[in-house]
Design brief:
The complex is a heterodimer of chains A (about 375) and B (about 100). Helix content of chain A is about 40%, strand content about 15%. In chain A, the strands form three sheets. Chain A has a seven-stranded parallel β-sheet with strand order 10-11-9-8-12-13-14, with helices on both faces. In chain A, strands 4-3-5-6 form a four-stranded parallel β-sheet, sandwiched between helices. Chain A has about 375 residues and is of the alpha/beta class. The radius of gyration of chain B is 14 Å and the shape is globular. Chain B is mostly beta strands. Chain B has a six-stranded mixed β-sheet with strand order 4-3-1-2-5-8, with no helix packed on it. In chain B, strands 6-7-9 form a three-stranded antiparallel β-sheet, with no helix packed on it. Chain B is about 5% helix and about 35% strand. In chain B, strand 1 and strand 2 form a beta hairpin. The chains are: A alpha/beta (about 375), B mainly beta (about 100). Chains A and B meet through helix 8 and helix 10 of A and strand 7, strand 9 and helix 1 of B.
Chain lengths: ~375, ~100
C-alpha cells in the first residue's frame, strides 16, 4: 500500500510542505507572529519557554525545537532568536540544517529591534517558501507512516467508541509495518498493569511502571487529590469518576499490538517500527508538541465532549465518540464514531472510514482544524520551575 | 414505551454506563452486556448521559469495577439503580491528600 508525500533529503516523508518559523524563546514570539501573518505557507511554534529555567529544562526546550524543526512535514525553517535567551539557538539552527532542510536565522537584538527583525524575517521566510514551494509529492510505501494518537476532552463514549476505533486503526498501521506512537502517561494511572503485559521485554514493562510512578509522584507532591486536575471537570461532567476509569478508556486507543519501548518527550523516531509509548502529560499543547517531535505526519485524536484544536505542522483528525457532540460540532469533528454508541455501525466499519481518511490526509487533504487554522495548540512540557 | 439503554462492558462489572438522555428517577432501563444478556433495572436517581448506574449491591469499602478492572472504591453503600459517580466513588490513585493526612 502507498501514499504520496514529500521525500526529504534525510529520507523521511512529509505529508505537508511548510516553512516553520521557530522562536527560540517566548520573548521572540511577537516578531515570529508578524512574519507568519505576512508570508503564505509558514506556521509558527509559539511556545512559552526558553529562558530563566534550569539547565535540564533549557536543554529540553532546545531539543524540542530541534525535533519540531526536523519534522518531515517541515520543508524549511526560520529560527527567530532574541539574542540573550537560555536556549542554544545556534544548535537549533545547525541541527535542523543538518537534516538537509533550507534553514535561516534572524536575531532581534542583533538586527536593531522589532521592526528591522520583522522585515528581515519576512524576507527570509519568503525566500524559503519560494525555494520549497515547487516540491512535488512522490509515491512512497505505507510503512513510512509515523502516526501519533491522543484523546482529549473525553467522556464516557471515548473508551467505548472513538478510542476503540483508534485502536483498530493503530493495529492496522502496525501490521502494515508503520510506526504508531501513543502517550499521555497520566492516563496510564490505574491501567499500567495492562500496558505492561503487552511490553515486548521485562525492561520495557519496568519502564512503563517507572514513567507512571514518576508522573503520579509529581501529581501527589502537591498534597491534594489529583481529581479535577485529572480527570478534568469536563471529564467528570461527562461521567468519568476517577483517573482509573479515564485511563482504562484511554488505553483502548493503543489497540492490542505489543509495545516496543518508551520514547523520551523530545525524541524523534529514527528507525523504530511498531507501537511505541511517548512519555507526555495529557494536556493538549504539551502532548501535541511531544507527538510532533516524533516526526509524525498526522495525529488521530479521539474526543467525546468536543476538542477542536490542532497543531501547526501536524494535521489532526478528530474522531468523535459522542453522537450528540458530533451533531453540535460538525465543523470541528472529522469522523462520527457516535454511530457505534447508537448501534448503527461497528468499530471495524468506522475504523475503515478513519483509515481511508488517514490516506487522504497523508496525500494532502486538509483536516477540519487545518482548514480553520485552529492549529496553535503548542507548548513545551518542562519539569522544573521558571526562576 | 421505548426502553432506555445501558451498557455493561465486562461480566465482572458492578456498574453499567447509560447512553440515553432524560433518564430520571423511576425510569426503567435495559442493561446489555457484550454476550447479549439483558437486565431490567429501575433507576433510583436522575442520571445524565454517559454516567454510571449500579447494577448490583455495592457495599461501602468495596471495589467498583468497569471494563473488568477497578475504577475506585465505594464511599457508602450503593443500591442497584443508584447513580455511581464522584459522590459515592473515590479514586485510589494520585491521592496526595491522603498522604498529607497521614503525616
Amino acid at each position: 500500500m502507498k501514499f504520496k508525500g514529500y521525500i526529504r533529503k534525510n529520507g523521511k516523508i512529509g505529508s505537508r510542505n511548510l516553512v516553520a518559523v521557530i522562536p527560540s524563546v517566548v520573548c521572540a514570539n511577537d516578531v515570529a507572529q508578524a512574519i507568519v501573518r505576512q508570508v503564505q505557507g509558514t506556521v509558527g511554534y509559539f511556545h512559552h519557554q526558553g529562558c530563566c529555567q534550569l539547565p535540564p529544562d533549557l536543554k529540553r526546550v532546545t531539543n524540542t525545537l530541534i525535533s519540531l524543526g526536523s519534522s518531515p512535514n517541515v520543508g524549511a525553517a526560520l529560527i527567530v532568536s532574541l539574542g540573550c535567551e537560555g536556549t542554544d539557538y545556534v544548535r537549533v539552527a545547525e541541527e535542523i540544517a543538518s537534516t538537509g532542510k533550507p534553514t535561516a536565522m534572524i536575531g532581534i537584538q542583533k538586527l536593531g529591534g522589532t521592526s528591522k527583525a520583522i522585515q528581515a524575517g519576512i524576507d527570509a521566510a519568503q525566500a524559503l517558501i519560494l525555494k520549497i514551494s515547487s516540491m512535488q509529492r512522490e509515491e512512497t510505501d505505507i510503512s513510512n507512516v509515523v502516526m501519533s494518537i491522543k484523546c482529549g476532552a473525553s467522556d464516557a463514549t471515548s473508551g467505548m467508541a472513538s478510542n476503540c476505533v483508534i485502536g483498530y486503526v493503530s493495529d492496522k498501521f502496525v501490521d502494515l509495518g508503520a510506526t504508531v506512537i501513543f502517550g499521555e502517561t497520566t492516563e496510564f494511572i490505574g491501567a499500567e498493569h495492562i500496558l505492561a503485559r503487552r511490553a515486548i521485554t521485562e525492561d520495557v514493562a519496568k519502564q512503563i511502571f517507572e514513567i507512571v510512578s514518576q508522573m503520579e509522584d509529581r501529581a501527589r507532591s502537591l498534597g491534594c487529590d489529583m481529581r479535577s486536575g485529572q480527570p478534568t471537570p469536563g471529564n467528570i461532567l461527562g461521567g468519568l469518576s476517577s483517573i482509573e476509569e479515564k485511563s482504562l478508556g484511554a488505553i483502548a486507543k493503543s489497540g492490542s499490538r505489543p509495545i516496543e519501548g518508551v520514547l523520551d518527550y523530545t525524541e524523534k523516531v529514527t528507525n523504530q517500527k511498531g507501537l511505541w509509548i511517548k512519555d507526555t502529560p495529557g494536556r493538549e499543547p504539551e502532548i501535541l508538541t511531544g507527538m510532533a517531535c516524533t516526526g509524525a505526519q498526522f495525529m488521530l485524536f479521539s474526543t467525546g465532549r468536543g476538542a477542536p484544536q490542532g497543531f501547526p505542522s501536524m494535521p489532526v483528525i478528530k474522531i468523535c465518540g459522542n453522537p450528540l457532540t458530533f451533531e453540535r460540532m460538525q465543523h470541528d469533528m472529522d469522523i462520527n464514531a457516535g454511530t457505534i454508541i447508537t448501534g448503527q455501525k461497528s468499530i471495524e466499519e468506522v475504523g475503515e472510514e478513519v483509515f481511508a481518511m488517514t490516506i487522504r490526509v497523508l496525500n494532502g487533504e486538509m483536516t477540519k482544524n487545518e482548514a480553520l487554522q485552529y492549529y496553535n495548540s503548542i507548548d513545551i512540557h518542562t519539569l522544573g520551575p521558571v526562576i | 414505551m421505548e426502553l432506555k439503554l445501558g451498557l455493561k462492558v465486562h461480566e465482572k462489572d458492578n456498574v453499567a454506563t447509560i447512553f440515553a438522555e432524560r433518564i430520571v428517577k423511576g425510569t426503567q432501563i435495559e442493561i446489555h452486556d457484550k454476550s447479549g444478556n439483558k437486565q431490567l433495572l429501575i433507576v433510583l436517581d436522575d442520571i445524565p448521559y454517559g454516567h454510571k448506574v449500579a447494577v448490583t449491591v455495592i457495599t461501602k469499602g468495596n471495589l467498583i469495577n468497569k471494563y473488568g478492572e477497578e475504577i475506585g472504591i465505594a464511599t457508602r453503600d450503593i443500591k442497584p439503580g443508584e447513580h455511581v459517580h464522584i459522590h459515592n466513588l473515590d479514586s485510589m490513585r494520585g491521592r496526595g491528600d491522603l498522604e498529607r493526612s497521614r503525616t
